[in-house]
From TrEMBL:
Its cofactor is thiamine diphosphate; Mg(2+). Belongs to the transketolase family. DXPS subfamily. This is 1-deoxy-D-xylulose-5-phosphate synthase. One of its GO terms (biological process) is thiamine biosynthetic process. The keyword Magnesium applies. It comes from Nigella sativa (Black cumin). CDD domains: TPP_DXS, TPP_PYR_DXS_TK_like. NCBIfam families: dxs, PRK05444.2-2.
Length: 720
């Protein structure tokens, strides 16, 4: 690909700071590829205040006086406002740029205490992609948000990286509303090939010539959707590039069992040969000749070609060939020369069909790796990486989570019942589960990002006489809903679903929040649905699930620390199915909470008590079956009933409404108000900020009660 000269249209100003010449343009907003003038000069830009006509797309470099001056000089990076500015750089310049970006990421890690380990692995790869391809005309798609931070830096969002995952700051994922360079939103790690193929077919139908590049990872290769998409891509034979970022150095699903992929001079040369224009043209000519010869010659030649290249490639590479993708690799993911060479060759031909480039990278690449590893890694599932700092942290009473309490309770049950097993699915395993894994290694099964398999696998275990606890984060359980319905609930198979990371989860935003599980689980005819209000109730619900052997059951718990816990948890006591409890008795208003929202109901009760209002607080425990006796009593004893849940419309409140309507309570004196998550996605912020935005805080609940009582002025005063 040729290079293109480009005059900086962004108003870049040269500044001298401590003998370092730096380019520092203003932050600007635009809908086009090139920034327009007149943007906000502050690097701390509030995305929510951006006018709609600008599409909330941000481009900015660090400004003088910001905390960026504490870092090492990055003269090459300071010149990059968008990928077009890279086109005139030499390979030597690109290597310097990679070093500076790696330094920038390490600096950001130390400042905002957020890990960039996955992005450190793809520094050179991201640079090479943007150097060869022409985004945003060419579409670049990513599977995992943690790998996109270099992409964000190179596409005009560098000065806002310190706002990552904060309220009104940058998303932790790619976002079409955030930047025109984000062709598609990175979600649960398996969508980029499917979306990319759709874009490729749309391009072909419209007669366009833009390129489609998708980047997947080791975790992605454990999902079924990837192989469905690759198979369809091979069948449709549309031009697209799939890049496998192999940071594990293995295509084997279990790293400890598979051979490591080695990058040698021979493999590097072979990768360049595979991607070369002349080799592929010769290969296409040979295909045409064998087709004309007929008599099975074409099929035989294809098998010989696949076998020969499979002998040279790493173990597992022929799988991609069988799916219809032309395999190239392995390529050293930290060798700029090789990456640019291979990508240019792949981009040079107009008719290649789908190509998979196997790139081997290292997550610990960089000079500040030691510091990088010390930062607890927040994973999409909501757990930290298993490192010594975290393991030391969870031993203190202040840092215990619901996950810790769940695992301790389950281990206690499993010691008494050798039929209890655990099936875990999701991206990263909660470190708390290591306790069960270490205690019962033969009764623990981590299937990775294969939620559909996990559900049906658990159903098979249950049919075989075991007692499976299927542990899946709420957002990932959505992918396995068909299996939950047909393989479990319809057949009344006693699988015990443990729905983690439920509700609003803070800085990971709506992509990984668990807003819908109450609704989609409670509508199933045979499913028992419950949620604990605190850690003691969680222990009891573990015992309840362990003793359930004739139908499926589920319970949810949120991410985050519980608070102060001085004593060890006791043994759980099985709860009576469909029986709630009253925590505080009053006469003016009844607050019926579900799950951890009971705690916010208690906060509201305390606020209202100071205003002379006597409030009843009840813990529903069960969404299905409801405690009909408790609900009926609350309606008979109170004029006002407020239900509170951390879930979407259609969940606990809807079940309450259905009952009290059919029972005739809405025909009389009772005034009912549901408090649920709003009908929109709550963007990334702190959990406290998210609860305030959703109207679920104790103050919001108390204000709702005051409004029902006609004390509007007090309600407004409370919310100030």
């Amino acid at each position: 690909m040729g290079t293109a000269s480009f005059n900086h249209p962004c108003g870049i100003t040269a500044l001298d700071h401590e003998n370092c010449r730096v380019l520092a343009p203003k932050a600007e907003l635009s809908r086009s590829c090139y920034p327009s003038r007149g943007g906000d000069s502050s690097s701390r830009l509030n995305l929510s205040s951006v006018p709609k006509e600008f599409g909330a797309q941000v481009r900015a470099l660090p400004n003088v006086g910001d905390f960026f001056w504490e870092k090492s000089p990055t003269p090459m990076l300071d010149m990059i406002e968008n990928p077009m500015h890279m086109k005139n750089l030499s390979l030597k310049d690109l290597k310097q740029l990679a070093d500076e970006i790696r330094s920038e990421l390490s600096f950001l890690t130390s400042k905002i205490r957020r890990p960039f380990k996955a992005s450190l692995a793809v520094v050179e790869l991201t640079i090479a992609i943007h150097y060869v391809f022409n985004a945003p005309v060419d579409k670049i798609l990513w599977d995992i948000g943690e790998q996109t931070y270099v992409h964000k830096i190179l596409t005009g969002r560098r000065s806002l990286m310190h706002t990552l995952r904060q309220k009104n700051g940058l998303s932790g994922f790619t976002s079409r509303s955030e930047s025109e360079y984000d062709a598609f939103g990175a979600a649960h790690g398996c969508n980029s090939v499917s979306a990319g193929l759709g874009m490729a077919i749309a391009r072909d139908i419209k007669g366009k010539r833009d390129r489609i590049v998708t980047v997947i990872s080791n975790e992605t290769t454990m999902t079924g959707q990837i192989y469905e998409a690759m198979s369809n891509a091979g069948y449709l034979d549309s031009n697209m590039v799939v890049i496998l970022n192999d940071s594990r150095h293995s295509l084997h699903p279990k790293l400890e069992e598979g051979p490591k992929t080695a990058i040698t001079a021979l493999s590097s040369t072979f990768s360049k040969l595979q991607s070369s224009k002349s080799f592929r043209q010769l290969r296409e000519v040979a295909k045409g000749v064998t087709k004309r010869i007929g008599g099975g010659m074409h099929e035989l030649a294809a098998k010989v070609d696949e076998y020969a290249r499979g002998m040279m490639g790493p173990r597992g590479s022929t799988l991609f060939e069988e799916l219809g993708l032309y395999y190239i690799g392995p390529v050293d993911g930290h060798n700029i020369d090789d990456l640019v060479c291979v990508l240019k060759q792949v981009a040079s031909l107009d008719s290649t069909g789908p190509v998979l480039i196997h790139v081997v990278t290292e997550e610990d690449r960089g000079s500040d790796d030691g510091q990088q590893r010390e930062v607890p890694t927040k994973h999409p599932e909501g757990s930290f990486s298993t490192n010594s700092s975290y393991l030391n942290l969870i031993s203190s009473s202040l840092s215990r989570t619901y996950g810790d309490c769940f695992v301790e309770a389950l281990v206690s049950e499993a010691k008494r019942d050798n039929e209890i097993v655990v099936v875990h699915a999701g991206m990263e395993m909660d470190p708390a589960l290591q306790l069960f894994h270490e205690t019962f290694p033969d009764r623990f099964f981590d299937v990775g990002m294969a939620e559909q398999h996990a559900v049906t696998f658990a159903a098979g275990l249950a049919c075989g006489g075991m007692k499976p606890f299927c542990v899946i984060p709420s957002t990932y359980l959505q992918r396995a809903y068909d299996q939950v319905v047909l393989d479990v609930d319809q057949q009344r198979v006693p699988v015990r679903f443990v729905i983690t990371t439920a509700g609003l989860i803070g800085f990971d935003g709506p992509t990984l929040s668990g807003a819908f599980d109450i609704t989609f689980m409670s509508c199933l005819p045979n499913m028992i649905v419950m949620a604990p209000s605190d850690e003691d109730e969680l222990v009891n619900m573990v015992a309840t699930a362990a003793h359930m052997d004739d139908q499926p059951i589920c319970f949810r718990y949120p991410r985050g620390a519980i608070g102060w816990m001085n004593s060890q948890l006791g043994n759980g006591i099985p709860l009576e199915i469909g029986r709630g409890r009253v925590l505080v008795e009053g006469k003016d208003v009844a607050l019926l909470g579900y799950g951890v929202m009971v705690q916010n109901c208690l906060k509201a009760q305390s606020l209202l008590a100071s205003l002379g209002i006597h409030v009843t607080v009840a813990d529903a425990r069960f969404c299905k079956p409801l405690d009909i006796k408790l609900v009926r009593q609350l309606c008979e004893d109170h004029t006002f009933l407020i239900t509170v849940e951390e879930g979407s419309v259609g969940g606990f409140g809807s079940h309450i409404a259905q009952f009290i309507a059919l029972d005739g309570h809405l025909d009389g004196k009772v005034k009912w108000r549901p408090i649920v998550l709003p009908d929109n996605y709550i963007e990334h912020a702190s959990p406290k900020e998210q609860h305030a935005l959703a109207g679920l805080s104790g103050h919001h609940i108390a204000a709702t009660a005051l409004s029902l009582l006609g004390r509007t002025r007090d309600a407004l005063q409370l919310m100030r």
